Amino acid sequence: MEETDARYPSLDNRVVFVTGGGAGIGESIVEHFCAQGARVTFVDIQEDASKVLVGRIAARGHKEPRFIPVDVKDVGAVQAAIARAGQEDGPIKVLVNNAGNDDRHQLDELTVDYWDDRMAVNLHHQVFAIQAVRPQMRDAGGGSIVNLGSITWMVGDPDCIAYVTAKSAINGLTRGLARELGPERIRVNCVMPGWIMTKRQLELWVTPEGNRQIDERQCLADRLYPPDVARMVLFLASDDSRMCTAQNYIVDGGWV
């Protein structure tokens, strides 16, 4: 978090739960919430990276997050972690459904098992995390749910149809549940990142051709980084966005 970043007093001591918080965009989201003074629990399958993150945050003097090793494909484990966080820290007021995986594949390579696995990684856990956190938020007088989508379905990326399908479904999930949960003062929004320069993306996909594509498609010439997404998530989690719900917020440098 930079000294020039906005400070949200409403996030101080707020109970936050983040999926996929150990690396990439999720890592930055966890860091930014901890810098705001929030009480953060995050789950991830990457145990080593997650433990390093916890140590780094503690060394900065920020509130140390709780890490629970969980594979988000195990819905029961996700819901158990949500229950634990609520019992130990108090009602969760912010849920960030961040976990996902954009492995590349072609239509002819798909099997039913692989398709179901991609839905489990990218979509199912979002639905059931919301289901699990709802009673805590309702009883606490409301809360904010931020789902992580993607612009991939808007641009029609051709090399990861399962991921694209799951991310488009998150759009409908967000709008439908915003209507259902609105009477309980639970807000539901979606953040849709563009091509974010995470360690994974830089190692696997950001080739010279990819950089040319970014230069051609984005309105802004700079590159997007995880903190650019984290800052939008902070706003949607804070009381400053108290009347924002059922929306999709694009952070893509003007790609779409």
Which structural traits does this protein have?
alpha/beta; Rossmann fold; 7-stranded parallel β-sheet
Short description:
The chain has 256 residues and is α/β, with parallel strands linked by helices.
How much beta, percentage-wise?
5-15%
Order of helices and strands: EHEHEHEHEHHEHHHE
Q: What is the CATH C-level name?
A: Alpha Beta
The biggest sheet, with number of strands, parallel, antiparallel or mixed sense and barrel status, is: 7 strands, parallel
CATH homologous superfamily title: NAD(P)-binding Rossmann-like Domain
Structure in words:
Helix 1 crosses helix 9, helix 3 runs parallel beside helix 4 and helix 4 runs parallel beside helix 6. This protein is α/β, with parallel strands linked by helices. Helix 4 links the parallel strand 4 and strand 5. The chain has one domain: Rossmann fold (3-Layer(aba) Sandwich), CATH 3.40.50.720.
Task: Set out the fold topology.
Layout: E1 15-19, H1 24-35, E2 39-44, H2 47-59, E3 66-69, H3 75-89, E4 94-97, H4 112-139, E5 143-148, H5 152-155, H6 161-181, E6 186-193, H7 199-204, H8 208-217, H9 226-237, E7 248-251
Parallel strand pairs: 1-2, 1-4, 2-3, 4-5, 5-6, 6-7
Helix pairs in contact: 1-9, 3-4, 4-6
